[in-house]
Specification:
alpha/beta; Rossmann fold; seven-stranded parallel sheet; 12 helices; 40% helix
């Protein structure tokens, strides 16, 4: 099987324009604190902020992130729930906004260790919010999740769909959403919550991508099989209520997620009130379809093994993101599943090469 050659969508010039910013000019740019800025999505956000004329300041405990991903920004190592630490950062940089990507996010682990998820995702976030308010920072962008919907009764899923999470991860994220509404009413905090569906892909130039330990996301796991780092990919259930029996998910490119954050930042800057948006392409792809697409992109067979279905795995999760398109002016640039996989494959080959020649 031969690898497929295809033309990639062109970068959005409005968002990907490379700015020549000297350190002196960067120090005068408006600051944005990026909590969790050395992780997968956060590192892409840091680069986009810098290239768009902002000054990203990362706060991260490096528990799961990678310090080298912070090469283009200032990194402060510490806990988002450490009020003295966060206060010092806010006092030094006087940021306009805080973007919050830091979280524990493994659904299975959340069932086994719920206390960890309530502490990391809720308690630490409340400490962060309190410290922000004490220092006059009133703009906040929160990374939430489609897990707040639980098992959907309507697909595509709109923002006003009932929120009935079925695991501690979803519960903890929804609790923060409620807190943001209350903080807005009581303290004037203005926040935009972005409910991600399935983040995927890598930076188009191959320099940033997904690197979790352990890896749990479908596309990088599939590509590790293609590169020879894993023997097969597990398909969890083949009897779901879907056309081919495998789960259907809405995959959204990491660059498109970051573009939505940048638009949310500009909306808050213009005085927007607290609100919530779904982020997804509105297109569902089954596990079988993703594996077949990866076979076409990589030219590798990618063996598959059937495993029992996972408890609490909804058959279908697809976003209705019409509100984000209408109000933010958001238009995903990388909606094609093969493009998402091709960018991730470029990153996986780089990781594989680095592992072979450390």
């Amino acid at each position: 099987m031969q690898a497929v050659e295809r033309s990639m969508p062109r970068h959005n010039p409005r968002l990907d324009k490379r700015l020549i910013i000297t350190p002196r000019l960067m120090n005068k740019a408006p600051a944005v604190v990026v909590a969790g800025g050395t992780g997968y999505i956060g590192s892409h956000m840091v680069r986009m902020l810098r290239e768009s004329g902002w000054r990203p300041i990362i706060i991260d405990n490096l528990a799961t992130g990678h310090a080298e991903a912070a090469a283009s920004a200032e990194l402060k190592v510490g806990e988002i729930g450490d009020k003295a630490f966060v206060a010092a950062v806010l006092k030094e940089f006087e940021p306009q906004c805080v973007m919050h990507f830091a979280a524990s996010s493994l659904v299975g682990e959340s069932v086994q260790k719920p206390g960890k998820y309530w502490r990391n995702n809720l308690v630490q976030t409340l400490n962060l919010l309190d410290t922000m308010l004490e220092h006059g920072v009133t703009q906040f962008i929160f990374s939430s999740t489609a897990a707040v919907y639980g098992n959907p009764v309507e697909v595509p899923i709109p923002e006003d769909h009932p929120t009935r999470p079925i695991n501690p991860y979803g519960h903890s994220k929804l609790a923060v959403e409620y807190a943001l509404e209350d903080y807005s009413a009581a303290h004037g905090l203005r926040s935009i919550t972005l409910r991600y569906f399935n983040a995927a892909g890598a930076h188009p130039d191959g320099s940033l991508g997904e690197r979790h330990e352990p890896e749990t996301h479908l596309i990088p796991l599939i590509l590790q099989v293609a590169s020879g780092r894993r023997p097969h990919i597990a398909r969890y259930g083949s009897q779901h209520a879907t056309p081919d029996g495998s789960c259907i998910r809405d995959y959204i490119h990491v660059q498109d997620l970051c573009a939505a954050h940048l638009l949310a930042l500009r909306r808050l800057e213009a005085g927007a009130a607290t609100t919530t948006y779904n982020l997804g392409n509105g297109l569902g792809h089954s596990v079988n379809e993703v594996i077949e697409a990866a076979r076409r992109v990589t030219g590798h067979p990618i063996p598959m093994r059937d495993d029992p279905p996972r408890a609490g795995d909804p058959p279908v999760l697809v976003a209705d993101a019409a509100r984000a398109r209408a109000e933010l002016g958001w238009s995903p640039q990388y909606g094609d599943i093969e493009t998402i996989i091709a960018h991730a494959w470029q990153w996986e080959r780089r990781l594989h090469q680095a592992a072979r020649h450390p």
